[in-house]
Write a structure and sequence with these properties.
Blueprint (H helix, E strand, L loop, with lengths): L10 E4 L4 E4 L4 E3 L10 E6 L5 E8 L6 H15 L8 E8 L12 E11 L8 E12 L4 E12 L19 H10 L1 E2 L7
Antiparallel strand pairs: 1-2, 2-10, 3-4, 4-5, 5-9, 6-7, 7-8, 8-9
């Protein structure tokens, strides 16, 4: 697949190559800038305040497949201190056809779209961010794989992110997120122990 700039997209190794996926252009590996938990791969857009996070979390067997994406979205809202009324909203949850995914090992896959009002780095200023949350359920490995696309919609002028507002030269799109989800591949099941 060709990008707008003409260079081909290639699968990027994740978790030491145990997983791989096509990462959108202009992605900076945040682990080169700061410490990232071992269960995450984090990419920031080089020119916007967008980010993509691939995260391995414990499989939530007590949550039915159709509710698992919402469960993880609310968990993220808690981590973002966005649980108060009006600070988060789920707008859609859609099942993905396994036939459209490279990760054939998943028992089901889901995409949730919602918004959260979050502050960055414990600031008082709050930004409205659209979250596109992809969920791959892997009960045989006791793991849920999350891909989160954080797409800021309204950045407070008092936020440290305000300098990135309006510089969206070539922002990532929902199609970039979908392509990343479709190309996620398991190369080494030993990743899960």
């Amino acid at each position: 697949m060709q990008s707008a700039g003409g260079s081909a997209h290639r699968a990027h190794p994740l978790f030491g190559g145990a997983l791989s996926a096509v990462i959108p252009l202009c992605a900076t590996d945040v682990s080169e800038l700061r410490e990232i938990p071992d269960n995450q791969e984090v990419f920031a857009h080089a020119h916007t305040d967008q980010s993509l996070i691939v995260e391995l979390v414990e499989y939530q067997g007590q949550v039915a497949d159709q509710g698992a994406a919402r469960y993880h979205f609310e968990d993220i809202a808690g981590s973002n201190k966005a649980l108060e009324p009006g600070a988060f909203e789920v707008t859609s949850v859609v099942a993905l056809a396994k036939s459209e995914l490279a990760l054939s090992e998943c028992s089901s896959a889901w995409v949730l779209t919602g918004t959260q009002c979050v502050s960055k780095f414990n600031e008082d200023a709050r930004n409205t961010v659209t979250l596109h949350l992809g969920l791959f359920r892997l009960p045989q490995f006791s793991t849920d794989v999350l891909i989160t696309f954080n797409d800021p919609q309204n950045i407070s002028p008092d936020s440290s992110s305000a300098s990135a507002a309006g510089t969206h030269k070539v922002p990532w799109t929902v199609q970039d997120f979908q392509h990343m989800m479709q190309t996620l591949t398991l190369n080494n099941p030993g990743l899960f122990g």
